[in-house]
Amino acid sequence: QVQLVESGGGLVQPGGSLRLSCAASGFPFSNSSMTWVRQAPGKGLEWVSVINPGADIILYEDSVKGRFTITRNNVKNTLYLQMASLKPEDTAVYYCAKGWIMTYPRGQGTQVTVSS
Predict the structure, then answer these.
(1) Residue 104 binned pLDDT confidence (cut-offs 50, 70, 90)
(2) What is the distance between the alpha carbons of residues 82 and 20, in angstroms, rounded to a whole number?
């Protein structure tokens, strides 16, 4: 079955950086588009970025453009999200999900907290 395991979250000061990882198994990762979504406290799920299998089509939600970078390694079956210039409003649980701008199936999430 689809298994997605996120890691790399933590507490970071405003302006800082983090790199999230998502280890995928149970499906053909190299043939699958992948999405990062997040859920801030008290809010619904919001898509952050999406990447197609060949990594030549990539989209970002407007608020993260120029600050976040999505990449993938189809040999390691791993999805990444490099986050820079982090802001308090980026605080959320970040999930990876299988599919093009999909929210399910997704992993258990990793908490990112941006605070001084």
Answers:
(1) confident
(2) 6
